[in-house]
Amino acid sequence: MIGIFHVFMWYFLLILYMGQIRGVFGTYEPVTYKAGCSLWGVIFIITGVSIIRAVRHQTQGVITFAFIMNIFCIIVAVIASILTAIELSSFNSVSYRNYGQAKLGREVSRILLISYPLEFSIALTYSIFGCLDLVNTLTAVTEEAESTF
């Protein structure tokens, strides 16, 4: 759900920043908008789907894929948090016409900055339990192979 929220926020920012009027000082295009940080919510969605699949079909390959996706999700959440903090720490002046849009976009970035640690903690929790599940699966396979000999 967090991933879907991030994708919707990306779409909102896209509509918001595309509607800017070229002013004296230019338009406001923060680094998170240019990098598409909130569009990275697709990675959160894929990770969630892989976790659900790993719970339903507990094979070594599916659990490993879910574990790798959780690690990737953690990395993405950290990078997005850093880029958003950089964006919010600096504010170049924009033309008076675009000030309202820039201010609203910064508020969206603040909301996203709150949700990135949430995604980080969820992915970290699932990666820890996924690692334990992977170890249990590997030991069960090893014990099963030893018992056949």
UniProtKB/TrEMBL annotation:
**What GO terms describe the biological role, i.e. biological process, of this protein?**
cell surface receptor signaling pathway
Q: Which Pfam families did the record assign?
A: CD20
Q: What is its main location?
A: membrane
Q: Which InterPro entries match?
A: CD20-like, MS4A
One GO term describing the cellular component: plasma membrane
Listed A to Z, the keywords are:
Membrane, Transmembrane, Transmembrane helix
- Give the residues annotated as coiled coil: none
Name its cellular compartments: Membrane
Q: Membrane-spanning residues where?
A: 7-25, 31-55, 62-86
Q: Could you tell me the membrane topology recorded for this protein?
A: Multi-pass membrane protein
The family annotation for this protein states: Belongs to the MS4A family.
Name-wise, this protein is Membrane spanning 4-domains A13
